[in-house]
Amino acid sequence: MKNYTDNMGSNEEMRKIQFTGKSSYIVSLPKQWISDMGLKQGDQVAVVRQGISTLQIMPLKHHNKPVGIEDATIEIKLEDEGAIIIRKLISLYLLGFTIINVKPKAGRLKPSQRNAVKEAVKGILMGTEIIADSIEGITIQVLINLFELSVDGALKRMLIIAKSMQNDALLALGESNLDLAKEVINSDDEVDRFSFYIMRQLRIAIQNEHMLNEMGLESPDHCLGYRLIVKNIERLGDHATAIAKDILEFKVPIKQSILEPIQEMNSFALSVLDESCLSLFKKDFNQAEKTVEKTSEISKYEKKILDSIKSLRDDEEIYRVRRISENIRRISEYASDIAEIVMNMTIEKALRKQ
């Protein structure tokens, strides 16, 4: 059978409708797809009508199948610290399990171990709830529906929080506001929550083509692109946290003459980050390309900061300002990285339009 890949996608084939019996029409299925799905003669497939002209065929085992139904159990040793337990919980959450059991390998869970699990559920693992809790073990269930918050929706919220952290860090820097600096540091957990949630979705999507389409992702390759983008936005939160920790360490405000170019540089860095993410949500190759070019302008803002510290005599203060400007410059680099990822994701579509 001939593949018509000149005018169609490489995963598409033309097949003839055949008439059999007195009233039945049949279409053959690709042998490779049957093999990939692990199907054999006699197995059932679900045929779902989508819109006026589209039918979707999927193995019955994937049709209306809950995602991540498997249970997982981790056994905790008496000497295991909270950080170890939390890392194991995050790993199972990212793998897509909906029921996670935490049990002692021997004896009972220590109060500190139970508290670590509860803190993880409360502050790190989005959409989870403890449904059983005793000294003999804790059971966690992931309740959130994957379609209640899309990948793009979660990414937008993550971006908003990370940008707010950065702006608040700059505000605290000018006011030497220690309380606000602490709030910035605490907000980093919220960024991580969205990061873990998106990673969980992407892992499920890459393993299930039906879920991939339902989440609005075009291909498994795009999952990798989103993974890298999420990491870049997560790093934005890390840099805001670094500036906040600087404020808590020095407890001295930056001079206004130096603060102004720092704020200008920060505004520019966040603006190109916005543009790069907008190109992602719009799947716009041209805007992504323009954003990559625009990010190089960060050097002129950095030069203003360097010029403003020439009169300083305190080496520690000079180092402090340089470190803050470095944190902001990185944000612009992340914007460029995101835009380049968008270009890679959309180049094929852009070429087709041309």
Indicate the multimeric state: single chain
Q: Please, what is the CATH homologous superfamily of the largest domain?
A: Phosphate transport system protein phou homolog 2, domain 2
Largest sheet: 4 strands, mixed
The amount of helix comes to 55-70%
Q: How many structural domains in the coordinates?
A: 3
- The general outline is flat
Q: Would you kindly provide a written description of the structure presented here, covering whatever features stand out?
A:
This protein is of the alpha+beta class and 354 residues long. It has three domains: 1-64, Pemi-like Protein 1, Chain: D; 71-142, Translation Initiation Factor IF3 (2-Layer Sandwich), CATH 3.30.110; 151-353, Methane Monooxygenase Hydroxylase, Chain G, domain 1, CATH 1.20.58. The protein is built from eleven helices and eight strands. The strands form three sheets. A four-stranded mixed beta sheet has the order 5-6-8-7, with helices on one face. A hairpin with a 3-residue loop joins strand 1 (18-20) and strand 2. The protein is flat.
What does the secondary structure layout of this molecule look like, with pairings?
Layout: E1 18-20, E2 24-26, H1 31-36, E3 45-50, E4 54-59, E5 71-76, H2 82-95, E6 99-104, H3 111-123, E7 128-134, E8 137-142, H4 151-175, H5 178-207, H6 209-214, H7 220-250, H8 256-282, H9 285-294, H10 298-308, H11 315-353
Parallel strand pairs: 5-6
Antiparallel strand pairs: 1-2, 3-4, 6-8, 7-8
